[in-house]
């Protein structure tokens, strides 16, 4: 990013904050009900000092990480199977397509029944959020593999395992990365709602996560704190997407080499 | 290499059994249908070790299908493809194909691409790297082993691809329009380069092209293919001296004669394909 772009970006954020502050002070419609950025900042300063805020970050982060990791661990091999084995696709794709439109949050009741702990239940809902996106991207990518690469590898004496590991997997990696970035975005959308519904983490609210903290603040009328939580979620989602992107670029050095 | 060697071409017409010399890739009355259409019909020819055979024919006549049969990607529905006495039953490192345009794995470095064959067949990393580097030196890509294919020019990619095949010392090389998509300058250089490589190689080489000049420059013999369903329509020997040099080939009076014969035969086949298509239109 050039210096000019950074400067313009900062200017945009400042202008946004200024408008918000102004709207809050003159009681403009809609935004007038909100505390201004200054008040939110002081609420943030209070929260930073409390352990609960940071443990909420950790709690939500862990859930996202596990749900996402599970979605990748199951979704990538499952997607490859669907893409490569026609019989498996004929058998498994129809139920997959019927289950897919069910919103992840609709799984909350069953998830609570399925799993012994609340954390596992939330992680399962997150998993359901990312899983379909990951699978669809893998299938789409693997079906577009250049057939010649597989033929060449087979001619050169590569066995099934080598073809999977050295040809099909790397050829699908760009699509897996796309699925991971989009899927990661979905996990943060899901974690908040799942935490609202599941209500805390059991241990006095400390393990409730950012979503729970947000809901709790709203019920206590602390709107400034709600906004702090909202911004925190935005930052967390953005940071995780960037992390996934950077990591996937590391795995695909040939994409940069041009 | 003996340039005056005559090809046994009479069997092509009277149907006698072609040779079963070791290292000779033989097509014997091969037929195959794809998608309900007969693409190759009772096609017979033999590729002898150390010789380059250029296959020329109307576009869409089924040349690539023959290449796939030779590589073992397709199985004939009738007849037999064999290497020496051994029937071809699938893909294998003894019969390697270089595809149209680049089929290098973009996610592997050039050296990794070249090492893929030796590594897949159980060679150790260090040993594979050594032979790969020697081969890259031979095709003039020394020092490019660590580059990714996308970082190379079109001509360099094609050479890397030749290296990936040659490092396995195949008995037969199948080159399916390998220079398609290259600019004229690079293409000319690659032709001279391949002529040199073929002269050093003892592989039976099949070179598929639509370019007669290219075919005459590179090949010991031309197979003019018939319109689909294809088979060998005419065999034309190219008894020009080796090593081949473009200027010498151009100056040779026989060149003109060979090209004329080939073009005439091709024209007949192109016409036949054209009328066949029209007939099909009428019957439809």
Percent of residues in helices of chain B = 25-40%
What Rg of chain B do the Cα atoms give? 19 Å
CATH topology of the largest domain in chain B: Rossmann fold
Global shape of chain A: globular
Q: Specify the biggest β-sheet of chain A.
A: none
Q: Specify the CATH class of the largest domain in chain A.
A: Mainly Alpha
The CATH topology of the largest domain in chain A is what?
MetI-like fold
Number of strands of chain B: 10
Query: Biggest protein-protein interface?
Result: A-B, 23 and 27 residues
Strand count of chain A: 0
Task: Give structural notes.
- The complex is a heterodimer of chains A (258) and B (284).
- In chain A, 81% of the residues lie in helices and 0% in strands.
- By secondary structure, chain A is mainly alpha-helical.
- Chain A has two domains: 1-32; 35-256, MetI-like (MetI-like fold, Orthogonal Bundle), CATH 1.10.3720.10.
- Chain B has helices at residues 11-14, 63-71, 110-120, 125-138, 154-166, 184-200, 212-218, 246-251, 253-283, and strands at residues 25-34, 37-47, 52-56, 78-83, 86-87, 95-98, 172-176, 204-209, 221-225, 232-237.
- In chain B, the strands form two sheets. A six-stranded mixed beta sheet of chain B has the order 6-7-8-3-9-10, sandwiched between helices. A four-stranded antiparallel beta sheet of chain B has the order 2-1-4-5, with helices on one face.
- Chain B folds into two domains: 1-94 and 172-284, 3-Layer(aba) Sandwich (Rossmann fold), CATH 3.40.50.300; 96-169, no CATH class.
- The longest helix of chain B has 31 residues, at 253-283.
- Chain B starts with 10 loop residues before the first helix and ends with a helix.
- Chain B is 39% helix and 21% strand.
- The chains are: A mainly alpha (258), B alpha/beta (284).
- The A-B interface holds A 146, 148-149, 151-159, 162, 166-167, 170-171, 173, 252-254, 257-258 and B 71-73, 90-93, 95-97, 99, 103, 105-108, 116-117, 120-121, 147-151, 164, 168.
């Amino acid at each position: 990013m050039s210096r000019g772009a950074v400067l313009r970006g900062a200017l945009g954020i400042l202008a946004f904050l200024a408008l918000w502050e102004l709207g809050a002070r003159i009681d403009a419609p809609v935004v007038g009900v909100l505390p201004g950025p200054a008040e939110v900042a002081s609420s943030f300063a209070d929260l930073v000092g409390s352990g609960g805020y940071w443990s909420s970050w950790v709690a939500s982060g862990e859930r996202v990480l596990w749900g996402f990791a599970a979605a990748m661990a199951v979704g990538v091999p499952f997607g490859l199977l669907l893409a490569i084995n026609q019989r498996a696709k004929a058998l498994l794709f129809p139920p997959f397509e019927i289950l897919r439109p069910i919103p992840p949050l609709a799984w909350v009741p069953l998830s609570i029944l399925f799993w012994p702990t609340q954390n596992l239940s939330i992680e399962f809902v997150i998993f359901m959020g990312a899983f379909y996106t990951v699978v669809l991207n893998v299938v789409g990518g693997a079906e577009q593999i250049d057939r010649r690469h597989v033929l060449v590898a087979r001619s050169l004496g590569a066995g099934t395992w080598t073809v999977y590991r050295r040809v099909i997997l790397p050829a699908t990696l760009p699509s897996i990365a796309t699925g991971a970035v989009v899927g990661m975005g979905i996990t943060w959308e899901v974690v908040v709602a799942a935490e609202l519904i599941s209500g805390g983490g059991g241990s006095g609210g400390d393990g409730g996560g950012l979503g729970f903290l947000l809901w709790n603040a709203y019920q206590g009328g602390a709107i400034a704190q709600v906004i702090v939580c909202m911004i925190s979620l935005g930052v967390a989602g953005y940071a995780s997407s960037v992390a996934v992107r950077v990591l996937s670029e590391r795995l695909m050095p040939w994409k940069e080499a041009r | 290499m003996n340039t005056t060697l005559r090809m046994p071409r009479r069997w092509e017409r009277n149907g006698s059994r072609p040779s079963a010399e070791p290292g000779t890739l033989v097509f014997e009355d091969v037929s195959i249908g794809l998608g309900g259409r007969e693409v190759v019909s009772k096609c017979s020819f033999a590729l002898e070790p150390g010789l380059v055979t250029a296959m020329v024919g109307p576009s869409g006549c089924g040349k690539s299908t023959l290449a796939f049969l030779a590589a073992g990607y397709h199985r004939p529905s009738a007849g037999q493809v064999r290497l020496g006495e051994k029937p071809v039953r699938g893909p294998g490192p003894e019969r390697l194909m270089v595809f149209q345009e680049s089929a290098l794995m973009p996610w592997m470095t050039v050296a990794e691409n070249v090492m893929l064959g030796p590594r897949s067949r159980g060679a150790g990393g260090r040993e594979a790297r050594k032979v790969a580097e020697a081969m890259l030196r031979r095709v003039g890509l020394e020092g490019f082993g660590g580059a990714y294919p996308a970082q190379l020019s079109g001509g360099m990619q094609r050479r890397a691809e030749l290296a990936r095949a040659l490092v396995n010392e195949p008995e037969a090389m199948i080159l399916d329009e390998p220079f398609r998509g290259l600019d004229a300058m690079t293409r000319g250089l690659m032709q001279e380069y391949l002529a040199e490589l073929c002269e050093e190689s003892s592989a039976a080489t099949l070179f598929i092209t639509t370019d007669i000049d290219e075919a005459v420059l590179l090949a010991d013999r031309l197979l003019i293919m018939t319109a689909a369903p294809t088979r060998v329509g005419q065999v034309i020997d190219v008894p020009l001296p080796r090593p081949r040099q473009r200027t010498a080939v151009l100056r040779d009076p026989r060149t003109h004669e060979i090209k004329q014969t080939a073009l005439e035969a091709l024209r007949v086949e192109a016409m036949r394909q054209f009328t066949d298509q029209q007939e099909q239109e009428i019957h439809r």
